[in-house]
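Run log // design_07
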């Protein structure tokens, strides 16, 4: 199927020599899964707590900030004959058929969204990760250090000439470097309270959004993450991403079709010049509702190609005759 985010992601990691070990908290225990399949523990409604990145087998990068409202479930071998429905495309079949991901869309996990308040540590860590916060803290730190330095020189020096100014600048820079880490940590605590209250109000607005619209949250978040993966993994140097916060949801109607604009805070992980680094930023995704979702079942699912009218198996994701991608298996797609 075209644009398989899970398959494309794993292929890229293999080509780059990168392995990701993701640790989850599930049922009060820590369980891990590796992208290379060397560690493949079952996860039932687990939340992510750590990602470790290995380059050519060597640990090179770690991430520990995740949105704890999103729970992940991966298959269990003990229930291989149980019927299972993919939360992304709706394909239903025996659980054993999902061993390498959904046979139709290749999504490997099921996501669920839980309504709860995020803790203070999540907000504190998120504040520290913002480049804007670091820049503002550095400027405030520099101004404060210069005031202290020049204040001391003016008070204790008989003169105030170019030599005294140079001493003030030098001492101010040294003091700024010494105080920066103190300001970096303490300023975050000062602004944590207002930020946490703002985030909690926004989180309550999100809860009201789900109640008002009646949207199936599990289906929506699986479709959203699948579509975001297709978008991000089209970038040549990106090897991973995580949505750190679902900032806002706004519904609208375009041409009689419901659309939802989602504002995200995202961490993107890049491999550049054999160096893994992460970058935090914001993004907006508009998802369009599909009111004519094709109900998939095990085996062949024949439909008419919208372009050439040939009979095609929709689970293949592409027309064998003209190359058209029919769509229609997801309730929400990028507009």
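design_07 sequence
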């Amino acid at each position: 199927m075209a644009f398989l985010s899970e398959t494309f992601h794993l292929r890229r990691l293999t080509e780059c020599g990168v392995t990701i070990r993701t640790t989850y908290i599930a049922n009060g225990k820590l369980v891990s899964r590796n992208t290379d399949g060397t560690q493949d523990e079952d996860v039932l409604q687990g939340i992510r707590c750590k990602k470790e990145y290995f380059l050519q087998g060597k640990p090179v990068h770690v991430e520990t900030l995740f949105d704890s409202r999103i729970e992940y479930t991966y298959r269990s071998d003990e229930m291989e004959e149980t019927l299972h429905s993919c939360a992304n495309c709706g394909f239903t079949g025996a659980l054993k058929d999902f061993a390498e991901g959904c046979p139709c869309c290749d999504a490997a996990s099921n996501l669920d969204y839980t309504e709860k308040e995020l803790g203070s540590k999540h907000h504190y860590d998120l504040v520290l990760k913002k480049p804007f916060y670091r820049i503002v803290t550095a400027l405030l730190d520099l101004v404060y250090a210069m005031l202290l330095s020049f204040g001391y020189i003016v008070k204790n020096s008989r003169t105030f000439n170019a030599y005294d100014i140079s001493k003030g600048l030098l001492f101010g820079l040294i003091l700024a470097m010494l105080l920066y880490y103190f300001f970096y940590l303490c300023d975050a605590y000062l602004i944590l309270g207002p930020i946490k209250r703002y985030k909690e109000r926004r989180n309550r607005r999100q809860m009201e959004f789900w109640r008002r619209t009646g949207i199936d949250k599990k289906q929506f978040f699986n479709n959203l993450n699948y579509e975001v993966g297709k978008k991000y993994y089209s970038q040549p140097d990106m090897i991973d991403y995580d949505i750190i916060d679902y900032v806002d949801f706004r519904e609208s109607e375009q041409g009689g079709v419901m659309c939802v604009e989602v504002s995200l805070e995202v961490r993107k992980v890049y491999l550049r010049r054999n160096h893994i680094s992460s970058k935090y930023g914001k993004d907006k995704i508009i998802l369009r509702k599909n009111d004519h979702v094709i109900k998939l079942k095990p085996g062949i699912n024949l439909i008419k190609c919208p372009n050439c009218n040939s009979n095609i198996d929709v689970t293949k994701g592409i027309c064998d005759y003209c190359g058209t991608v029919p769509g229609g298996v997801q309730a929400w797609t990028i507009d």
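Helices lie at 5-16, 120-129, 131-156, 162-213, 217-232.
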